[in-house]
Amino acid sequence: MLFTKRSTYTPFLLCLAIFITFWLVQLNAFNIIRWSYNFCHFLYGFCAALTLGYVTLPSRFFKRSWRENLYALKAGIPWSPWGGLIIVLFLSAYNEMYVDPRENGIPFSSAYQNFVADMLGLGLCLLISHFALRDRQGNTRTDYAADTTMGSVGGQC
Question: In 3D, which of 40, 41, 6, 9 has the Cα closest to residue 25?
Answer without folding.
Answer: 40
